[in-house]
Specification:
single chain; two-stranded antiparallel sheet
């Protein structure tokens, strides 16, 4: 069963201060009948100056290349805010192995420089843990998988750590985030400063594990957590996937795809009891 929304709610441009201050929320009009319930819950929170929601929608001013999608589920009091904060080109860099790090930071050092190598390895381990937000003991993701992730890169590209989050609201109540930390990727040639908004891609850590398992016969299946957010962003679309326990006690596989240009979205729900799909149009804030 599918429900479609052709037109989205209207929104006036936001006004007020930028930078780190909380920006003034825009005036929202809920004009579409199918999504009016969810839209009114969103508007109610905005009108009440809910600070968390305003930051999710408008940001803090730290990211100039950001977009937020507010997606209303038709015929349900449910909406989600998916924010995409793209790092500035100057924040990207090329991945280096230990020997390259030594040469980069100390030209007169050699690979046998033990203290420098140990420092680089600790830095790399911190990067790996941050990518997967894995600070547990024992770690949730094996070191072998983290090593494979770190080595899976091209010298034609530069990278920057980041996060994409899906913030969910049901019946006007915040239900929490589904997010994925990972890497923003950009062609190294784009760092010449000639493009103010160069093409960029995002692959979350758990989205990478899923792709790695598809390509390598599930050799790292034990490191994947299906209930964790699996998020990726390409030039045309944004993709969110995870599993959750449904009302009957079983597991539902959820996927959402958003068109980055138009805001059109499709949600799919698959469980042992069947499948369902909804579709609509997200409001886009920049």
């Amino acid at each position: 069963m599918a429900a479609a929304q052709i037109k989205g709610p209207s929104v006036a441009p936001p006004k007020g201060p930028t930078g780190n201050a909380i920006r003034t929320p825009p005036a929202v009009k809920c004009v579409d009948h199918d999504t009016s319930t969810a839209c009114k819950s969103f508007k109610q929170l905005l009108d009440a100056r809910d600070k968390a929601l305003i930051v999710q929608v408008l940001g803090t001013g730290l990211f100039k290349r950001r977009t937020a999608y507010v997606c209303f589920r038709p015929n349900d009091d449910y909406f989600s805010v998916v924010d995409v904060d793209i790092p500035e080109p100057k924040a990207y860099g090329r991945k280096l192995d230990a020997d390259e790090e030594i040469a980069h930071y100390a030209d007169d050092s050699v690979p046998s420089n033990t203290s420098m190598r140990e420092m680089m390895e600790r830095s790399r381990e911190a990067d790996e843990n941050s990518e997967f937000m894995d600070f547990s003991d024992p770690p949730a993701v094996s070191q072998d998988t983290k090593d494979k992730w770190y080595k899976d890169h091209s010298k034609d590209f530069v990278y920057s750590v980041g996060e994409v989050g899906d913030y969910r609201y049901q019946n006007g109540i915040y239900k929490g985030p589904v997010d994925d930390w990972g890497e923003w990727t950009m062609l190294a040639s784009s760092m010449d400063g000639k493009q103010s908004d160069p093409p960029t891609w995002f692959m979350g850590g758990y989205a990478w594990i899923e792709r790695f398992n598809r390509q390598n016969g599930n050799v790292a299946a034990r490191d994947d957590n299906p209930e964790h957010g699996h998020i990726s962003v390409d030039l045309s679309s944004l993709n969110v996937q995870y599993k959750y326990e449904n009302a009957s006690g079983g597991m539902t596989e959820y996927t959402m795809q958003i068109n980055r240009l138009t805001g059109r979205f499709v949600e799919d729900f698959k469980s042992p009891n069947g499948s369902n799909q909804t579709s609509g149009t997200c409001m886009i804030f920049k």
